[in-house]
# Entry
Amino acid sequence: MEVPKIARRSSWTGGAVQERLRRLNLITTVPPLAFVGVLLLALTARTWWHAGIQVIGLVAALATAERWTAGDYLRVARPSLAVTAVVWLAGALTNDTAAFYGVSVVGSFLIPPLRRHRLAALFGLAALVAVLGLPNVLVHPDRTGPRLLQYVAVPAIAVLLSAGFMFATQRLFDLVAELEQAREREAELAVARERVRFASDLHDIQGHTLHVVKLKVALAEKLLDADPGRAREELREVHTLVGDTIVQTRELAYAQRRLNLTAELENAKNLFEAAGIHVRLEREAEPDARVGELLGQVLRETTTNILRHAEARHVRITLGRTGIAIVNDGAAEPGPLGGLSALRQRLAEHGGELEVSHEDGRFLTAVAFPELAGAVR
# Structure
């Protein structure tokens, strides 16, 4: 049977989406197919010949199933269809009622991704399986009715049911791919929003200062001959303004600018929810005003790290009077965390301790101020 052109499932290929779908396929699709194939082998194989041809068909079916989400499964599926068709013909000639299993599985993987004529291809495959089983009736003329049922009707119906199951499975995988791609886009958007906010803060710091500097320099130029003392004073003010701007810009670059913890909590919650991450906020106590800004800096840096480096589904933020703890799942092995490393030194200068740990895919970022905790007691 000629296999029509298959649609390229571009939404399944590339990056974390494909890797997640491959893991999902290996967990939800391949094991049940293997279990059914082994069960049929155990129940129906009466000779070593039957066992051998069923194993060949099962291996071809599982190879197709394993490569289904890999992007190049047609390279395996088409030869597997020919192999399993021969296996079914051999099984029909030797009274092996379960030898059709391989061709029904491989065919069901080929039908759903077709661009068009899927229904015609489905019934064509069912007809092919029925025709391949018909020689059993011709070679063994006894019990014609039961043989037509076992080797023609049942295999054809099995192909239709198997393809229907794969239509539903493919739709499920399409939805998972769409959700993963939406999550990636939301995470990228969250990072872009963070960059826009940084640019806005930078503009706030430098825009006004540069405008004032321009006016003062122009004024000093006019006063240079008429009132040198006043011109000198204007230039000193310009020097002070530029120095303050340099300090503020450095603080902004190293996430040391004053932050509002309440605003950072709300911003983190909005960013996580936009990226499809469930957020649980636990307020054990209102934070001490002396450490609120530092906790806000840690929360902002951790939020950015989770959106960029993790595949989180759940985040729990626990806020206390003298500390904060953020736990997220979906964490890969941590790489360099430059932002948190820079914050660790600043926290230490104020008596704070930063703890980061990774265990079983969960990442913990926690800050505590022991001296303040002792003062509370």
